[in-house]
Specification:
Elements lengths: L2 H16 L31 H12 L6 E4 L3 E2 L6 E10 L2 E10 L5 E2 L12 H6 L7 E3 L5 E7 L4 H17 L4 E7 L9 H14 L1 H13 L9 H9 L6 H9 L4 H13 L7 E4 L2 E4 L4 H16 L21
Parallel strand pairs: 7-8
Antiparallel strand pairs: 1-3, 2-3, 3-4, 4-5, 6-8, 7-9, 9-10
Helix pairs in contact: 5-6, 5-7
Amino acid sequence: MNSRSRTFLLAVAVAAILGYAPGQTSARKITTLKPATAKTPAPNKSALDKPTLEAYVRHLFVWGPAIQVSISDPKPSISLPGFQEVTVRGSAGEATLEETFYISKDGQKILRATVFDIKDNPFKPELEKIKTQLQPSFGTPGATVVLVLFSDFECPFCKEEAKMLRQNLLSAYPKQVRVYFKDFPLDQIHPWAKLASLAGRCIFRQNPAAFWTYFDWMFEQQAEITPENVKAKVFDFAKGKEIDLIQLSRCLETRATEAEVNANIADAKALQVNQIPTMFINGRRVVGNRSWPEIRQIIDYEIEYQRTARNAGEDCGCEVKLPAPRLN
């Protein structure tokens, strides 16, 4: 082996050690493995943390900064054991919405659900909140089916519903139905609705039977009434009726019935009524202006249900009366 061959073999050996290959013009970099830097784990989010839940709900419902959000403290759920129950309330002016969320104990899962107890009427939560004492009513006391109307005298859809019910209910169901009226004036968009409700309550105090004449008249006159003439219109109605005009005037001037109207508004909000008209038929929520065939179908079902099927809860939604002592 001559000196040139020995030089070539030595060069190959060195190249192999250093990572070169014969004929390569650049060197292959030898990578040195370094221990991976441990990443700090992100903290677990928990729906039991109020700011975290608020951010989540705002994203869920598209609630921007204009919506005020309040969140109740978590409490063990009675209706869904093993979960924490939280009430989230959003509000903007007079508009409000409440939602109940059920959160797992570790705060990782959220349920937005209606929970039913098979032994109870499915409308029991609504029935427990509906108050009909001392409210204007027509129909048969103690009837099988009870309709509770939340309405507004200035609402055009309420007008259509009122006309439909007054034209059909008693002729179709002379003994099986009782109807109650509860005020829910949306005065932020209907400027004379609340005063009309106050006046209705003043008339009801004097002459309960005259209320339903007022009810029909107000809806018939709806297009003619303005914030400026509503009080004069009320007095036009009252003339010739069995209503003391001086007493009516005093009632309106002092807003003597405002607490009653406000109580009905509070009841509507407790029931999460956020659209008018809304009625409850034996506790079943019926939202919007429905056709008479739709309403009749529900009433017919309730009449038959109360006659036969008693296996979905014993509460029928029948008339709630004030307790009174027996006199004999």
